[in-house]
Each structure stands twice: as C-alpha cells, then as structure tokens.
Specification:
By secondary structure, this protein is mainly beta. The protein is built from two helices and eleven strands. The longest helix has 10 residues.
C-alpha cells in the first residue's frame, strides 16, 4: 500500500497547455493577470525575466519551460496568462501560468508523494486524483536548481527573502 503525504489540504489549481497542476496555498500570496516581463540576460532558461511587484523585482519562472510543456520554444506572455505570486523558503517568485482554476480542498490522505511514482528529484511534490482529473503538485523548494538559484543571485534578480517579503 502506498503511504500518503501530510500536506495542507488546500491547493491552488492552475493549468499549463491543458494539464493541471497544484501549488500548496501556503506558498501563494495572490494571483494577478500577467504583465510585461523585463528580460534579463544570462539567466537560466526557466527564468523568463523579472517583474516589478509593489516596488520589488521578482524573477518570473516559466513553469511551461520547467515542466517541458509545449514545443520547447519560449513563447511571449499572453494577455490571458496569469502570475501566481508565491514564495519558497529562499525567495519570492512570479510563476507564469496559463490560467488559475480554483482553490481545491483536498483530503491529505488522497495525496501521493512524488517518490511513490517517480524518482522524486524534480519539482514535483506529489499527485492527487480528483473527480475531474489528475493534479501534479509542484514543489517550489525544488523549482530552481542550486545553479539556477546562484545565477539569479548573481544577476541581482533574486527576489530574495522568501516568506518574509510583504
């Protein structure tokens, strides 16, 4: 029998190219319509640039790139896209997603840990099967590799402070 994760039971559910993903509500500050992203040279390919949020620059992470959705080509930010303003323990981030669907209440016992199905080394924290389909739960702590974190810090696009940002 597979063991279950004990996580928050609330997930912000969002979509990328028709697939559904979730992020623990505890990591999410708010959801806003996507705005113009300022490109910053020499950043990791999952970082499409930075955006000004209340006077602070936040790196914009393309979860499409991270999860290799679409054709692999970087696409322009669309007016229908959204940013999930979120934080890991190390930095504040703006996650570029297609759409945000809902906050789902999920019983903790329904969530499977990632390492029960995959190697658990990536940015996937777990999975949950709901009546309307499978949701892949993202792990913001592993969204960026140590090298990507260092590149952001060196570029001054760190969005540092994590959960301590206002």
């Amino acid at each position: 029998m597979l063991s279950r994760m004990s996580l928050t039971s609330q997930l912000v559910v969002f979509s990328l190219d028709g697939s559904r993903y979730g992020l623990p509500l505890a990591n999410v500050e708010r959801v806003v319509r996507a705005a113009e992203v300022t490109p910053i040279p020499e950043l990791p390919e999952v970082v499409v640039g930075a955006v000004d949020v209340a006077g602070a620059m936040r790196p914009v992470i393309s979860l499409r790139q991270k999860f290799r959705r679409g054709n692999g080509e970087m696409r322009r930010v669309l007016i229908t896209d959204h940013f999930i303003l979120a934080h890991s323990s190390r930095r504040a981030l703006a996650l570029l997603v297609d759409d945000v669907e809902q906050v789902a209440d999920v019983p903790a016992e329904m969530i499977l840990k990632a390492d029960e199905l995959i190697d658990g080394k990536g940015a996937v924290q777990g999975f949950v099967k709901l009546e309307d389909g499978l949701i892949v739960i993202c792990d913001l702590e592993k969204c960026l590799t140590p090298d990507q974190e260092l590149a952001l810090d060196q570029a001054g696009a760190g969005g540092g402070g994590g959960a301590h940002d206002p």
